[in-house]
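Protein data:
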Amino acid sequence: MRFHFRQFTPFIAFLVFCCAGVSNASVSGGPDKKCTACHATAAALQSSPTAHKPLREGRCQWCHKTHGSANANILHAGGGRDLCVICHKAQKPVEGEKENHGFSAKGECSVCHASHDSGRKNLLLKEPQELCLSCHEPIKNRLALAHPHAAAVDSCINCHNPHPSASEHLLKAKPTDLCSACHEIAPWQKPMRGWL
């Protein structure tokens, strides 16, 4: 059986027409102009410099289906990490990484991040330190002591990664490597259990 390109010409023409239509609609704002006509809150946030990139660019369809979905808020995926990691692949654990941060492990990105805009970098609902300490009460109490660790007072994310990490306690690196970034540590010194 010989392959005849002409057999597929109508189908190929249809695909080109559909793809060109979607591409042009996305670039010019197309269907998303219709979204913001009813969704005034989203329209107001669109010009915010801290708004979610798809919203800023008028690409609602990156997260939402246009005609309906089995998922709440007509989302492509069920929400939370299932939806977010479609674009934010670095937040999905890879081999060797632990998923031991409670909300991240459950895929509940919205506990820390807004979907559309928060007025803060990375769509955080609060400033990083305030956000971390709103759940980590014992650490907050230790930082209130007479001699708190300066790096911890400044920001938890100086040492910790709130997303998947290969290290215990979501550390960005080995304890000695983290400490030696600010402190001179002799090579023979080993971290003690009480350091963490």
